[in-house]
Structure formats: structure tokens, C-alpha cells
UniProtKB/TrEMBL annotation, chain A:
This is L-cystine ABC transporter ATP-binding protein YecC. The keyword ATP-binding applies. Residues 22-267 form the ABC transporter domain. Its main location: membrane. Belongs to the ABC transporter superfamily. GO terms for molecular function: ABC-type amino acid transporter activity; ATP binding; ATP hydrolysis activity. One of its GO terms (cellular component) is plasma membrane. NCBIfam families: ectoine_ehuA (TIGR03005). Pfam families: ABC_tran (PF00005). The keyword Membrane applies. It is a peripheral membrane protein.
UniProtKB/TrEMBL annotation, chain B:
Belongs to the binding-protein-dependent transport system permease family. This is Ectoine/hydroxyectoine ABC transporter permease subunit EhuD. It comes from the Bacteria. Pfam families: BPD_transp_1. It comes from Streptomyces sulfonofaciens. InterPro entries: AA_ABC_transptr_permease_3TM, ArtM/GltK/GlnP/TcyL/YhdX-like, Ectoine_EhuD, MetI-like, MetI-like_sf.
Length: 271, 216
């Protein structure tokens, strides 16, 4: 099946059991004349943890932003859970997706950002309950109960009434993780979530993510420079360079015997 | 020219009338400028140039012509179109609209100062656009704009003497009237000058305190 796709891209994660959750099909994204993604094909199977590695500027963030509909592709298509994120069926024809359609498909996706992006005008608890109440229609009580459980899980059960600015970066990021999980997404997108943290706070956040990876069946698509973490949680690792997947495989293979020269260079630079 | 305390006493009844009129003008003018400015700010964000362009032209025009010209325009021209108000109401409308073109800029800056990450987080949580505005963007923007709006209120206070041009008896108008009646200008004008300081200075301290508290 990879024979008819662009030879420039490997089909990085051929679905084994047909339960594929994310599929990029010949996705091209340009900023002006800068071709950031070049007919990118890849897929992620449901429940898997996939890590994207690669040099800065290789398009990793762009992939997550495309999935989160923070930006849209110039060509190609993206499917989440079998539904097009970029298009919708109308009268039997495939047309560019409207707002309402995008909103529905997007509900399956949660994202944690490098800069946390908590709402500074809301207390911690309300940061987490805001979307479940207004988007999912949970009652305030239900949402708060669930928020408290999530805060316990990330080790911040006692900080419900704090404002984000009163927390350390590591604590803010753990709240942001709880906030994303409160929407019960099928996929969690993590974009260098520890890059903005002081070194001593990184471990706490990674432990929370390891926990989530181990105890939930949520699909994770993760960009990180924490190679030990990537090795621990990943089912697959994709190496990016210049907007293409140049190599992919199990963490063992990727970190111990990478085939591609660029992968070796990259890993020796970051490890 | 010697100072006569009894002339001060004689002026006080008119003075208090003038104070009330000035404060009424500032209070209502502020409310109008806050509300209309918000309308301009949103209209200027409209997706179509058919809205943005006229809003830009009109507000630039109002901002860059003198307030006194606008006062005269409202006072002399509107009645010709069958729209008639009292002099005070006319003044309040004119100063409110004039200052709305400044508050518009304040709101725009406040909205743009909310980091893009806030919009992105709201999108990632699927918050509807309206909810994003009311629960996330505006509460953060308002914190940032309160001090700047406060400064414009103070500036508006100092512009109210222009109402004299359309015959409104605010503080300065009362002082001039008193002078004309008694042939003593020093005391009424001094009282009015002091009154402006007594109102404006604490107000500016308040704005500075708000600035320290709200803008972080
Ligand atoms: N909003 C944007 N406007 C213009 N260029 C952008 C924008 N976002 C990303 N880029 C460019 O796209 C390329 C890939 O960026 P990104 O996806 O952030 O890479 P990575 O996350 O792998 O470091 C970079 O060359 C970057 O300069
Ligand atoms: Mg990046």
C-alpha cells in the first residue's frame, strides 16, 4: 500500500489492526515560499504513543497545530477517527470543512502547549471546569468533582483555589495537562511540554505523563527532546527532517541502531 | 489686586452648581466613550473591509479634529436636522463620542495584548467564539485597559471647560458668570483652578494605584 504514495515519505505507522485514529494524506503546508511539510503521509493507531523527534524547524509543531486546527494545510487531507478534519461530506461531495464540523472533530483532540497557556483570570479549578461545563454540558458539580480527581492525579489536589501565576512552571504545566484531560480526548498532543521549565521541575511533569501513558488508553502524539522519556513511553518514534519522516521504528531500534545518517547525527547531538 | 475671602463665599453657591455639572459631564461622557469605543473596537475587527474601512475613516476624522469644532457641530448643526438637545446633553454626547475614538484604541491595544496562546488554548478546548471572548479574552483585556481608560477620564475632565463655547455652565462657566456679575475674576477663577487640582490629582493617584495592581 505504500507503493502508490509519494516515494519521499515512508508510511510511518501502517495500521496493523485497522483502528487507525489519525491519518495524514499527502499533507503539504507552506509559509510563503517555505515548504514546511511536503506531501506528508503518516498515521497513528488508536491507543498508541508516538513521539516525533527531529531538529528545530523540521515541522513537528506544525503537525500538532494542524491536528488542533490552529492552522490549516495547503493541500492533502487529515483524518481523525475516520472523519476528515480538513473536509466534510456534503451532498456526497468532499468540500472544505465548515466551523461546525471542525468543532465536532476537534473535540476528540486535546493539546498541551510549551507555554502552558492557562487562563490567568481563572483559578486552577475553573481552568479545568470551564470547557467541560460550556462545551460538554457537564453540571458544575460533576465538572468540579472530575477536576479534583484530575488535580489529585497530577499531584495538585490542594491547589484548586490558586491562580495560575501563584504556581511554579511545573505546577502550571500539570494543571494544563489536567485541563486537557478533563475534555476526555481520544488523542493528547504534547508539544515540548517541558522545554519552558526550569530543569528541576521537568521530572515532575514527565512522571505525570508516564503515569497517564501507563494507566489510560489515550493516544499520545508527543514532540519532545527528552529522549529517555520518549524511550519509556513510545510505541513508535518518527524522525523528522525538513518536513518529512525520514525514519521510523520502535524506540529500541531508533535509539540503539538508527539506519539513517541524519537520525544518527541528530541523536548524537541531543543525547 | 487683593484677595477677598468674602468674594469666595459669594461664589460658592454657583460653584457647587458648576461642580455638579462638570462631574455629570465627566461621568456620563465617560460611560458613552467606554460603550461607543467598544463598539468601534469590535467593528474595526469585522472580517469585511466594507465595515473596517468606514469605521477607520470616521474615527480617524473624529480623533483628529478639535473637540470644540465637534461641540459646535453638535450644537449648531444637529438642530438643523431636527435633532435637538439641551446644551449640556449636547456637550456630553460630543465629548463622549470624541473620547470614544481614544477608548477604541485602548480597547484594541488591550485585546491585542492578550497573548495568542490564550486563543490557542481556547481553541484546543473547543470553547465557542463568544465564550472565548467573554470568559477568556475580555477579562484579561479589561485589566490592561482600566488604567488607560482612567487617564482619559482625567483628560476629559480637563476638557470640560470647552463646554463654555456652547453656553453650558460648568465650573468655568459659573466662574465667568460670577466675574461678569461682580467684576471680580480672581477669586472665582482661583477656586475653579484649585477645584480641578483637587479632583484630578487624587484621581491620577488612583489610576496609578490601579495600574500597579492590575497590569502585571
Ligand atoms: N506562523 C508561521 N509563519 C511563518 N513560518 C512559520 C510559522 N510557523 C512555523 N513556521 C516555520 O515552519 C517551519 C517549521 O516550524 P515548526 O513546525 O515550529 O518546527 P519544529 O516544531 O519542528 O521546530 C520553521 O521553518 C518555521 O520558521
Ligand atoms: Mg516546535
Amino acid at each position: 500500500m505504500s507503493a502508490d504514495t509519494s516515494p519521499k515519505n515512508l508510511d510511518a505507522n501502517p495500521p496493523v489492526d485497522g483502528s487507525e485514529l489519525i491519518r495524514f494524506d499527502k499533507v503539504t503546508k507552506r509559509f510563503g515560499s517555505n515548504v514546511v511539510l511536503d506531501e506528508l503521509d503518516f498515521s497513528v493507531a488508536s491507543g498508541k504513543h508516538v513521539t516525533l523527534i527531529g531538529p528545530s524547524g523540521s515541522g513537528k509543531t506544525t503537525i500538532l497545530r494542524l491536528l488542533m486546527t490552529l492552522t490549516s494545510p495547503d493541500s492533502g487531507s487529515i483524518k481523525v477517527n475516520g472523519d476528515y478534519l480538513t473536509h466534510e461530506q456534503r451532498n456526497g461531495k468532499l468540500v472544505p470543512a465548515g466551523d461546525k464540523h471542525i468543532r465536532e472533530v476537534r473535540k476528540n483532540i486535546g493539546m498541551v502547549f510549551q507555554q502552558f497557556n492557562l487562563f490567568p483570570n481563572m483559578k486552577v479549578l475553573r481552568n479545568i471546569t470551564e470547557a467541560p461545563v460550556t462545551v460538554l454540558g457537564l453540571s458544575k458539580d460533576e465538572a468540579e468533582e472530575r477536576a479534583r480527581e484530575l488535580l489529585d492525579m497530577v499531584g495538585l489536589g490542594d491547589r484548586c483555589d490558586a491562580y495560575p501565576t501563584q504556581l511554579s512552571g511545573g505546577q502550571q504545566q500539570r494543571v494544563a495537562i489536567a485541563r486537557a484531560l478533563a475534555m476526555r480526548p481520544q488523542v493528547l498532543l504534547l508539544d515540548e511540554v517541558t522545554s519552558a521549565l526550569d530543569p528541576e521541575l521537568v521530572a515532575g511533569v514527565l512522571d505525570v505523563l508516564r503515569d497517564i501513558a501507563r494507566t489510560t488508553d489515550i493516544t499520545m502524539l508527543c514532540v519532545t527532546h527528552e529522549m529517555n522519556f520518549a524511550r519509556d513511553i513510545s510505541d513508535r518514534v518518527l524522525m523528522f527532517d525538513a518536513g518529512r519522516v525520514i525514519e521510523s521504528g520502535s524506540p529500541d531500534k531508533m535509539f540503539t541502531e538508527p539506519e539513517h545518517e541524519r537520525t544518527r547525527e541528530f541523536l548524537s547531538a541531543v543525547l | 489686586m487683593n484677595w477677598d475671602w468674602s468674594a469666595v463665599g459669594d461664589f460658592l453657591p454657583r460653584f457647587w452648581d458648576g461642580v455638579l455639572t462638570t462631574l455629570e459631564a465627566v461621568a456620563l461622557g465617560s460611560v458613552i466613550s467606554f460603550a461607543v469605543g467598544l463598539v468601534w473596537a469590535f467593528a474595526y475587527r469585522a472580517p469585511t473591509r466594507l465595515v473596517r474601512w468606514p469605521v477607520g475613516v470616521v474615527t480617524e476624522f473624529i480623533r483628529n479634529t478639535p473637540l470644540l469644532v465637534q461641540l459646535f457641530f453638535f450644537y449648531y448643526v444637529l438642530p438643523e436636522w431636527g435633532i435637538e438637545f439641551s446644551a449640556l446633553t449636547t456637550g456630553i454626547l460630543a465629548i463622549g463620542v470624541h473620547y470614544s475614538t481614544y477608548t477604541m484604541q485602548v480597547y484594541r491595544a488591550g485585546i491585542e495584548a492578550v497573548p495568542p496562546g490564550q486563543w490557542e488554548a481556547a481553541t484546543a478546548l473547543s470553547l465557542p467564539t463568544r465564550r472565548t471572548w467573554t470568559a477568556v479574552i475580555l477579562p484579561q483585556a479589561i485589566r490592561r485597559v482600566v488604567p488607560a481608560l482612567g487617564n482619559y477620564v482625567i483628560s476629559m475632565l480637563k476638557d470640560t471647560p470647552m463646554f463654555i463655547g456652547i453656553g453650558v455652565l460648568e465650573m468655568l462657566g459659573q466662574a465667568r458668570l460670577q466675574g461678569a456679575d461682580t467684576f471680580r475674576y480672581v477669586e472665582p477663577l482661583t477656586v475653579v483652578g484649585v477645584a480641578f487640582i483637587v479632583i484630578a490629582y487624587p484621581a491620577s493617584l488612583l489610576v496609578r494605584a490601579l495600574e500597579r495592581r492590575l497590569v502585571r
